[in-house]
Amino acid sequence: MASEKTRKLLVDVARGIFAKAGLEGTTMNDIAVASGKGRRTLYTYFKNIREIYYAVIEEELDRMSERMREVAAQNIDPEDKLLKLIYTHLSLVRETVNRNGNLRAEFFRDIWLVEKVRKNFDQAEREMVARILMEGVRSGQFDVMDIRLCVDIIHYCVKGLEVPYIFGRLGEGGAAYSRPVVQRILHRALARIDSERLK
Questions:
Q1: Tens digit of pLDDT for each residue in 7-36?
Q2: Contact 117, 57 (CB under 8 A)
Q3: Which of 72, 74, 112, 156 is deepest in the core (most CB within 10 A)?
Q4: Contact 103, 18 (CB under 8 A)
Q5: Which carries the bigger pLDDT value, residue 178 or residue 106?
Q6: First to last CA, the chain
Q7: Prediction pTM value
Q8: Per-residue pLDDT tens for 77-87?
Q9: 166-187, pLDDT tens digit by residue?
Q10: How many CA atoms lie within 13 A of 139 on its CB side?
Q11: Residue pair 75/64 in contact by the 8 Å Cβ criterion
Q12: 198: Cβ contacts below 8 Å, ≥ 6 apart
């Protein structure tokens, strides 16, 4: 328990320093001094600065996953839930990147590093989307031929929207403007077509 607290303290201190100085401008000694724990304690938990950086990103992603699980657990219409999950994802990514100051630069410059660290987050999100699609299929609202393929398409579409959303380039009116468009795309792609209307 004490070791968990110490590790969390080190990660929190590192996050604050990374936010001001960035990854390249931060040393193990900076974190040791700012935490008041000393270099020996720091090296007990982390081998190097990159390992602490991974831990900071992982903690942010865990926080995001928890918020998204709350959305996925809501008892609402599957289409509305999927839309809410997409916009929760985008808002949380923007909030996390903006809150971390200079860490933003590393986030965009070293995107492959971030990809490696976010594997668990991506997998958890895929599972949430799959469950929502299955809910929609079971309720007769969705007509999905291949759930895994549909999950892949939604996942990569949402990831592709992250950077434009962070920088406010997703339509001139922001989320309020883009949301109805995304909802319409989801509805057209997933909704069961009433055969009577086709006659």
A1: 999 999 998 898 888 888 899 999 999 999
A2: yes
A3: 72
A4: yes
A5: 178
A6: 66
A7: 0.82
A8: 999 999 999 99
A9: 888 876 666 778 888 999 999 9
A10: 15
A11: no
A12: none
Structure tokens at 14: 């590192």
Q: Name 191's bridge partners.
A: 142
CB of 101 closer than 8 Å to CB of 20: yes
Question: Are the C-beta atoms of residues 17 and 34 closer than 8 Å to each other?
Answer: yes
* Tokens read off for 77: 């219409």
Residue keyed to tokens 């965009």: 108
* Closest to 95 in 3D by CA, of 107, 112, 83, 113: 107
Using an 8 Å Cβ cutoff, are 88 and 68 in contact? yes
Q: How far is CA 72 from CA 56, 79, 85, 144, in A?
A: 25, 11, 7, 19
The size of the chain, in residues, is 199
Q: For residue 136, which of 65, 64, 85 has the smallest C-alpha distance? A: 85
The residues with which 142 forms a beta bridge, in sequence order, are: 191
Cβ 85 vs Cβ 132: under 8 Å = yes
